[in-house]
Amino acid sequence: MTGDTFFNIPEDSNWNSTWNLFWNDEQSRASLRAGRPFQVFSCWNGVIVFTAKPITEGLVKFRTHTNEECYQGEPKLFCKDLWYHDYGRIAVVTSVNLEYSDDAAKKIKALKGYVSRWVSGDSGTTRIAWQAEPPELVKCMPTYSEQTFIPWDEGLPRKNATGEVDQ
After folding, report:
1. Which of 33, 36, 109, 129 has the fewest CB within 10 Å, making it most exposed?
2. Could you tell me whether strands 146-151 and 137-143 are parallel, antiparallel, or unpaired per DSSP bridges?
3. CA Rg, the chain, in Å?
4. Mind giving me the DSSP string for 130-167?
5. E strands within the chain?
6. Strands 91-92 and 38-39
7. What residue ranges in 45-132 does DSSP mark as E strands?
8. Residue 165: strand pairing partners
């Protein structure tokens, strides 16, 4: 919810900090270490669950960026559009871990455990304190050497105080 990437990727594009997840967000970092879910602006890796309502109602669709938006991947645009339409409950569920093959999945499950390990005996500590508003700024990173923070809703139609789109 800082609007930043999960780990720092410097301009030289080295991924040496992949181990240092959420280096600038202590709350998310603590939740990750404890195996608790936490809210994010956008995330999409392995599996995603969401209500179909924004799609079936034509509010959100899979798309590419517009000329008025930062060049970014479809998953981030999808989450951005969810926020715009008041579907901002997007979370990382740390107890779910996936892989791309059965052999790799067995290894990650042996290393990280199954969901049941993390949630057995849970006494409500996995509840997320949802933020209603997205971060004001999010990282735009069309290339590793071109990284800036931009308004989260860059390129989207402006809404007035009642939530209606301004004409």
Report:
1. 129
2. antiparallel
3. 17
4. --SS--SEEEEEEETTEEEEEETTTTSPPB-TTSPBP-
5. 38-39, 91-92, 137-143, 146-151
6. antiparallel
7. 91-92
8. 159
pTM of the model: 0.85
Q: Are 14 and 4 in contact (CB under 8 A)?
A: no
DSSP code, position 124:
S
d(CA 4, CA 139): 5
**Inter-residue contact 15 to 66 (CB < 8 Å):** no
How buried is 33 (Cβ within 10 angstroms: 0-12 exposed, 13-18 middle, 19+ buried)? exposed
For 52-101, the pLDDT digits (tens) are 999 999 999 999 999 999 998 888 999 999 999 999 999 988 878 888 89
Q: Which residue has the tokens 């007035």?
A: 160
Phi, psi of 140 (to 5 degrees): -105, 125
CA neighbor of 7 nearest in space, from 144, 137, 121, 150: 144
Length of the chain measured in residues = 167
